[in-house]
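Researcher: Re-running this chain for the archive, since the previous output was lost when a drive failed. Same request as before.
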Amino acid sequence: MAQKPGNISIFWQELKRRKVIKAAAMYAATAFIIMEAAEIMLPRLGLPDWTVTLVIVILIVGFPITLILSWIFDITP
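Model: Regenerated structure tokens:
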């Protein structure tokens, strides 16, 4: 007899079908580039050091929002 796939397996397949994994990978790559650019450019523009931290916090907060929107609306490149 064939076994039924587990809940985690079904959830993982649904993530792939809705392309949430792809959206997460794209967001992570883009966020990394933005963080590196912010670390280099913001201090040279004469902005305070906390602006780099602010950019990182905004990117971290945006990650779950991106995943949720990707799940709901199938937002992918």
